[in-house]
Amino acid sequence: MNVIIISGRLVRDAEMSTIGSKNTPKASFSLAVNRRFKREGQPNADFFPVNAFGAIAEFMGKYGKQGVKFEISGHLQQDRWTDRDGKNQTRNTIIAESIEFAESRAVSKANTGSNTASAPAKNTATAEIDDFAQIDPELEDLPFD
User: Fold this and answer.
1) Residue 108 burial (CB < 10 Å; 0-12/13-18/19+)?
2) Which of 23, 41, 60, 124 could serve as 27's disulfide partner, Cβ 3.0–4.6 Å?
3) Non-local CB neighbours of 97 within 8 Å, separated by 6+ positions
4) Structural domain harbouring 12
5) Is residue 117 part of a domain?
C-alpha cells in the first residue's frame, strides 16, 4: 500500500501548467513540514515536492499561496531517469489525491501576515466554511466516551 499524509506550509505559490492533449491542469509546489524532533546541526523542516492534477490542481491554483498550511494525502511516486552525464537519477514526488486547509483563516492570516489565506473552502473546492468549529467538551454531548 502506498499512502502518505503530510501537513505543512507552502514554500511559494503553486506553479500552474497543463499536461496532455486535453490540457489537464497541473499544480506543482513544495511543502515545508516541520520536524517533530531536531538533532543539533539538522534542519528544522523537510521539503517535499508535490504534484496535483485536475480539480485539485485548480484548487491549488486559486488558494495555494506561500505560507498557507495544508494537509495533503496521496501517494509517493519515484521517477527515475538518466541525466546528460549518464548518471542515474531518482526523485520522490507526492501525488496529491486530497488537499485540505490545515488551519483557520484567522490563524493562517496571522502566520503569513497577509490575506492570502482568505479562501472560504475546506477541500478541493467542494465545501465552504467560514472557520473551524470550536468544540467545548464540557458543553457538548460527544458521541463517544
Assistant:
1) buried
2) 60
3) 56, 73, 74, 75
4) 4-112
5) no
